[in-house]
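so im writing up the methods section and need the DUF892 family protein record in one place, dumping it here so i stop losing it
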Amino acid sequence: MREIEIHDYARQLLEAHGPKAIAEAAQNAIELESKGELELAKTWRHIEDAMKLMRGPHQS
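--- predicted struct ---
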């Protein structure tokens, strides 16, 4: 996936699922890693990172 596609997909996931989308992306990556699907897992990690950037820093 190209960078712009990853960010578009990440934005859509955040809009559809809210903050839990980040946890879902992480879970997808974990499941794929356990199955040996390392390239797909890497893509999900990238999507997860993009969503974290979009969400912004935690506020205390």
